[in-house]
Amino acid sequence: METKFSDYFSFKLVWQRMPELIKKIPITLELAGLAFLVSLFVGLLLAVARYKKIKVLGAVATGFLSIVRGTPMLIQLYVAYYGIPAVLRIFNSLGANIDVNIIPKIVYAFIALGLYQSAFTSETIRAALESVDKGEIEAAYAMGMTYGQILKRIIIPEALENALPGIDNSIIGLIKGTSLASTCGIIEITYQNQILAGRDYRYLEGYVALAIIYWAITIILERIFKVVEKRVRVPDKPADATAAGLSAQQPGISVSRA
After folding, report:
1. Relative orientation angle of helices 25-51 and 189-200, to the nearest 10 degrees
2. Nearest to residue 11, comparing CAs of 219, 204, 218, 214?
3. pLDDT in tens, 44-90
């Protein structure tokens, strides 16, 4: 019997798989969004603890980062999925009344993904905070500005601009990391492909369709963040702007930047 290329791979089946996979994109985005909020909150606390060099909190943050970055995300998902209910049952044995069975599975997944990503988000935020020019902060103090004003007008705008590329990578990483959430029984797009492929055993077409969908989501996010980066970009320093204006008024004068 003559074999055909379609016996091994079918482009038609790739496109047929996509509508069924796309139906689960909202679950993937919801999971990634919740995990990002956790990573941003925890990452900010870790970053501030290390940036301010708070002894006890800094040591705790360093230990947390070492554990999280030193263990695979898949293992952390399993620990969250089996560990959180075990801890809650211990509290129940001490008199608490928590129904473990009503907790949605997505809770375990976004907590695990968020804590994992917070280790990397914290480094992005800390690096952004340290990139703010200390001379600008000292000059602002010399002008009589309060710390709140300096935080609002100098530190946050400049740190946010420097942190956005790293935050963009964090969100994209979380989108792709949700593919492991199937270990918690969540039917997102990757798990949906396994269900569909189990009917006809055509796994390859489904994985190619998944790759195209993840790629499309990544491209869209990158375009969105490029627009956001342009919006939050801090304008040139006043001295540079003044020099540029002087040069424009007097064409014969050229301004060189050191």
Report:
1. 140
2. 204
3. 899 888 888 888 888 888 899 999 989 999 999 999 999 988 988 88
Listed in sequence order, the DSSP H helices in the chain are 11-22, 25-51, 55-69, 73-93, 105-130, 134-142, 147-150, 156-177, 189-200, 203-232, 238-249
Q: How far is CA 220 from the centre of its chain?
A: 15
CA–CA separation, 51 vs 59, rounded Å?
A: 12
- Please report, for the chain, how many H helices and E strands are present, in that order: 11, 0
Instruction: Give the number of other Cβ atoms within 10 Å of residue 196's Cβ.
Output: 18
d(CA 98, CA 104): 13
Torsion of CA 246, 248, 254, 258, to 10 degrees: 70
pTM of the prediction? 0.80
Which residues have a Cβ under 8 Å from the Cβ of 172 and sit 6 or more positions away? 218, 221, 222
Alpha carbon distance 155, 159 (integer Å):
6
CA 136-142-147 angle, to 5 degrees, is 70
- DSSP class per residue in 36-62: HHHHHHHHHHHHHHHHTT-HHHHHHHH
pLDDT digits (tens, 9 = 90+) for 123-139: 898 888 888 888 888 88
Give the integer Cα–Cα distance in Å for 77 and 58.
Answer: 25
DSSP classification of residue 141: H
Domains of the chain, CATH where assigned:
13-239 (1.10.3720.10)
Contacts of 209 (CB under 8 A, 6+ apart): 14, 15, 17, 18, 21, 193
